[in-house]
Amino acid sequence: MSLSETLWRENRELALASLNNPFVQGIRDGSLDPRRFSYYVGQDAFFLKAFARAYVIAGAKARDWEDFVQLHQLAAGVFGELKLHSGYAERWGVDLVHVEVAAATRRYTDFVMATAWGYGAGLTVTALTPCMRLYAWLGRQLADSHPPEHRYSDWIRTYSGLEIEDLAVQLEALVDKYAADDPATRGIYRYAMECERDFFQAAFDSLA
After folding, report:
1. Backbone angles phi, psi at 38, to 5 degrees
2. How many CA atoms lie within 13 A of 193 on its CB side?
3. I need a surface site. Which of 24, 65, 172, 196 has the fewest CB within 10 A?
4. Averaged confidence pLDDT in the chain
C-alpha cells in the first residue's frame, strides 16, 4: 500500500465526520440554507487562494522540473474552482473581495502557508492532499446517492467529476514521491483533515 493510501485510510473517521456533517448532508439533498452556502463560498474562495500559493511554493522546492510544472498545473486547477465560486457569488450576491475571514478559515490557511514556507515539498504536498482527496471522495459519495436536481447539483457534479479525481491522484503521487513515512507526515495530514472537518462545521454554524 502506498503512503498516500495509508494516510487516507488512517484518517477515515475524519472523512466520515465531514461526510456526515449537516452542512455536507444539506448539500446532498438540497436542504442547506443558502445563507450558510453563501458564507462557505466566501470562506472557501479565501482558502483556495492560499492553496494556489502553496502549490507554487511547493513547485519552487520540487527537485524535478516535471514536478515543478505539475504543481503549477495543479495551481491552475484551483482557478477552475474559483470560477465555480465566482458563479455562485454572482448568482447570490456574495462579495469575494471583502471576505471577513473566520477563525476556522484562518487556522487552515495559516497552517497551509506556514507548512509551505517552512518545510520542503514533501510536507507541503502532504498538507494539501487531504483537501483534494476529501472533496473528490465527498463528491462521489453525494453523487452515488442520486439526489434529485437542486440548487447545489453543480457543486456535486463538479466534485464527483473525473477532473477532481485526477487532480487528487496527481497530488497523491507527489506525496508518495516526496514525503517520508514518518510521524511528521502523519501529523501534517491528520491536522489538514481536522481543518477540513472544522471548516464544514464552521460553515454550518455560521447562522448560529
Report:
1. -60, -40
2. 25
3. 65
4. 93
Task: Quote the CA–CA distance of 139 and 155 in Å, as a whole number.
Answer: 8
Q: Which three cell numbers stand for residue 89?
A: 457569488
Q: Is the pLDDT of residue 85 over 70?
A: no
DSSP code for 148: P
Averaged pLDDT, 42-57 = 92
Given a contact cutoff of 8 angstroms between Cβ atoms, the answer to whether 15 and 135 are in contact is: no
**At a CB cut-off of 8 Å and minimum separation 6, what does 122 contact?**
175, 178, 179, 180, 185
The full 3-state SS of 27-70, as one line of letters, equals HHHCCCCHHHHHHHHHHHHHHHHHHHHHHHHHHHHCCCHHHHHH
CATH architecture of 3-207: Up-down Bundle (1.20)
Q: What is the pLDDT of residues 87-123, one digit of tens each?
A: 766 776 666 677 789 999 999 999 999 999 999 999 9
